[in-house]
Amino acid sequence: MRLADATWTDTRDADVDVAFVPVGSTEQHGPHAPLGTDTLTAVAVAEAAATAYGSRMDEPAGERRDDDGDRGDAVVTPAIPVGVSEEHRAFDGTMWVRPDTFRAYVTDAAASLPGHGVDRVVFVNGHGGNVEALAEAARRFSRNPDHGGYAVAFTWFKAVGDHASEMGHAGPLETAVLRATHPELVHEDRMEAARDGATDDWGEWVSGVNLAHDTEEFTANGVVGDPTAGDADRGRKLLDLASNALVTLAGAVVDRERNERNN
Ligand SMILES: [Zn+2]
Q1: pTM of the predicted model, to two decimals?
Q2: Angle at 24 between CA 21 and CA 26, to 5 degrees
């Protein structure tokens, strides 16, 4: 169920266990992939997981199940499309907000939901720069008794098994998912140039410290990793891995008792 496509009456009558809030970015993804890549991938994972969540049948009966024993659904909210991306500021089209703004906006947006009976939230993230601020937003949301809910943050490319080590930026993983979900937005004719201009590693590391605050310091075209190594078939596998992980997480989030000590 997509929240933005539903009416308020549909939403009132729905049996919703959990909300997936996609969180992305608007930032350079090399010469071959769109600025909205992180939002597109986050939405794709959230929607695949919501479909799978609603149709799963093999879960043990949890205390939050309905009287008839059925699971409810997962709702996918509108995506939050601008995140913590200042590190890409040298590249045209990149937009960003300060981490404080991001945390406050994300937390407030999620706080709208418990009043409608949706008190479990998973932020479904597609951008590495959002990870820290999003984890903090989930903690703030969960600790504030006024919100009356519980949230966690999930980053899809950390939940794809051995593939995760190849993440890079606009590299094989993101390119693969886009080729599977939005091939019309991938510039195949620029793929070799994207690969040839890419760097292998994210950052400039000394004694565990990244000396580079901005990505332009270590990649001229914005790409880290080999985008040609991510075909559509790999993209579908990544979507399966990430959405399955999200379904498992959502089940645990729904069944978990919220920490009520602050109430
Ligand atoms: Zn990205």
Answers
A1: 0.93
A2: 145
